[in-house]
């Protein structure tokens, strides 16, 4: 009898503990959601432990993906190339390693080309080693951290356009919030000189692959196909990075504004290499150099300039 | 302690698989949530007390490692671990249809718990579109992965018991 009473008490206590734990986590979610709570050290520790494994498995995964995609390609071409199949397979097997290096080389060359052309940015190349499968947010993990000079709120790009920004910089890895994440908001404007309408690009929960440009006045000059670039407002994203193109327009339920569905310029499904903008600066315009004049016309042009300047 | 270490390594291995290899098979950015399936299988194998603990651990791992909304996965996985653990002594654990059926219910519950949190946090989204674009692919993935994960969890359970 006494044993049963003890068991009941113990069971009751456990139920209470469980209820308190559930209630605490429930409150914690709201504190974290509103930005009042952040488990920074724990995040760092988990990232530090997991990132080497993620990196290794990610590499294996990319190899497997490459091999499987090759197998699929061969299978589809089987009918057309029946006679040459054996030879092709042999050549593919021989060239598999070389092709992998070539593909990587091409990606890195494109990134390097961007790095050299974008002189206003100091870029740090990084490899994607993890992706989040959560339904409600879009994050990736890259293999660069604070030891490489990465800090929070640095913009992340590829040669094709904007990827997102660093939300947590660990020692040897960092988490990047993609522009498709519903918590992300990027100050943008329409690149077309006649328009230059500003808006905010934010993730859309209804369509996780296509963010939206919101806060566009209803009569604003935005059309389908317009290229959207970062405006530089807010300080996180430097000005002039391509975000995507407007694929369709819709009216906001409020009635005063409209929104544009953006097709990102970056293919987030095939994101392997990225670059972090560790420093950005204003581009100093090159000094204007007068074009070489045709011999014999110098005096005429000098006279014209005098006339224009009001000299008698 | 040794048992805990073995299960922790197993969960970490599945998590690394989930974040590194499975995204390669993602459809519209959606890939399976093996941590949820592990919680379900473990709860059926070990009861509600350890099921809640596993839900807490894997939920925390997900929340900390991915930088998503902190606490939502912990809450959801714990609740699902508790409910599945409640029924642990009323089902045949080796049945083929058990993980398949429960994976559907667990995914639905997980989705609606997370959707409720999003709603309460002030995020608005078109529900029907979101169901079509996100929930249905996720449900298919979970359905396909449920049995392999359950078998792996059963194997791990036997292995851990054999080590004792």
Walkthrough of the structure:
The complex is a heterodimer of chains A (312) and B (164). Chain A is 37% helix and 26% strand. With 312 residues, chain A is of the alpha+beta class. Chain A folds into two domains: 136 residues, Rod shape-determining protein MreC, domain 1 (Thrombin, subunit H), CATH 2.40.10.340; 84 residues, Rod shape-determining protein MreC, domain 2 (Thrombin, subunit H). A six-stranded antiparallel barrel of chain A has the order 1-2-5-4-3-12. A six-stranded antiparallel beta barrel of chain A has the order 6-7-8-11-10-9. Chain B is an all-alpha fold and 164 residues long. Chain B has five helices and no strands. In chain B, helix 2 packs antiparallel against helix 3, helix 2 runs parallel beside helix 4 and helix 3 packs antiparallel against helix 4. Chain B starts with a helix and ends with a helix. At the A-B interface, helix 1, helix 2 and strand 1 of A face helix 1, helix 2, helix 3, helix 4 and helix 5 of B.
Largest interface: A-B, 55 and 54 residues
Number of helices of chain A: 4
What is the CATH H-level superfamily of the largest domain in chain A? Answer: Rod shape-determining protein MreC, domain 1
* Mean pLDDT rating of chain B: 86
Number of domains of chain B: 1
Strand order across the largest sheet of chain A: 1-2-5-4-3-12
Shape verdict of chain A: globular
Major pleated sheet of chain A: 6 strands, antiparallel, barrel
CATH architecture of the largest domain in chain A: Beta Barrel
Low-confidence stretches of chain A: 1-6, 300-312
For the sheet with most strands of chain B, the description reads: none
SSE inventory with pairings:
The complex is a heterodimer of chains A (312) and B (164).
Chain A: H1 2-33, H2 40-76, H3 85-117, E1 121-131, E2 139-142, E3 155-158, E4 161-169, E5 174-178, E6 185-190, E7 198-202, E8 212-217, E9 227-230, E10 242-251, E11 257-264, E12 273-280, H4 298-309
Antiparallel strand pairs in A: 1-2, 1-12, 2-5, 3-4, 3-12, 4-5, 6-7, 6-9, 7-8, 8-11, 9-10, 10-11
Chain B: H1 2-20, H2 34-66, H3 72-86, H4 97-120, H5 127-163
């Amino acid at each position: 009898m006494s044993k049963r009473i003890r068991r009941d008490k113990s069971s009751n206590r456990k139920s209470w503990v469980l209820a308190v734990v559930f209630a605490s986590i429930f409150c914690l979610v709201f504190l974290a959601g509103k930005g009042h709570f952040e488990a920074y050290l724990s995040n760092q520790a988990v990232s530090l432990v997991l990132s080497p494994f993620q990196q290794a498995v990610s590499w294996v995964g990319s190899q497997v993906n490459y091999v499987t995609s090759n197998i699929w390609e061969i299978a589809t071409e089987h009918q057309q190339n029946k006679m040459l199949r054996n030879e092709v397979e042999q050549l593919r097997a021989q060239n598999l390693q070389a092709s992998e290096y070539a593909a990587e080389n091409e990606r890195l060359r494109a990134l390097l080309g961007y790095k050299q052309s974008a002189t206003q940015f100091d870029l740090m190349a990084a490899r994607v080693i993890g992706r989040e499968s959560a339904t409600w947010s879009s994050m990736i993990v890259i293999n660069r951290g604070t030891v490489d000079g990465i800090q929070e709120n640095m913009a992340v790009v590829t040669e094709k356009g904007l990827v997102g920004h660093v939300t947590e910089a660990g020692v040897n890895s960092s988490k990047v919030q993609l522009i498709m994440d519903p918590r992300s908001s990027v100050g943008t404007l329409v690149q077309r000189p006649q328009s230059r309408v500003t808006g905010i690009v934010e993730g859309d929960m209804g369509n996780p692959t296509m963010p939206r440009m919101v806060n566009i006045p209803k009569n604003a000059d935005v059309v389908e196909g317009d290229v959207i670039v970062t405006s530089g407002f807010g300080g996180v994203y430097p000005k002039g990075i391509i975000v995507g193109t407007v694929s369709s327009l819709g009216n906001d339920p409020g009635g005063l504004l409209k929104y544009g569905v953006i097709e990102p310029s970056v293919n987030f499904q095939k994101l392997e290499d990225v670059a972090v903008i560790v420093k950005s600066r204003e581009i100093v315009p090159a000094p204007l150099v007068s074009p070489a004049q045709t011999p014999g016309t110098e005096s005429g042009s000098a006279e014209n300039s005098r006339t224009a300047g009001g000299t008698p | 302690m040794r048992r805990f270490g073995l299960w922790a390594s197993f969960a970490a291995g599945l998590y690394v698989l989930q974040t590194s290899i499975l995204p390669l098979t993602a459809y519209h950015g959606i890939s399976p949530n093996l941590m949820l399936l592990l919680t379900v299988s473990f709860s059926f194998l070990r009861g509600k007390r350890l099921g809640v603990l596993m839900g807490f651990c894997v939920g925390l791992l997900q929340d900390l490692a991915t930088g998503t909304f902190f606490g939502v996965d912990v809450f959801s996985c714990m609740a699902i671990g508790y409910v599945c653990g409640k029924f642990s002594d009323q089902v045949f654990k080796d049945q083929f249809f058990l993980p398949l059926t429960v994976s559907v219910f667990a995914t639905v519950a997980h989705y609606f718990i997370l959707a409720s949190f999003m709603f309460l946090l002030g995020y608005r989204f078109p529900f029907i579109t979101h169901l079509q674009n996100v929930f249905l692919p996720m449900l298919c993935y979970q359905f396909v992965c449920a049995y392999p994960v359950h078998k792996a969890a059963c194997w791990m359970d036997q292995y851990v018991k054999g080590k004792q």
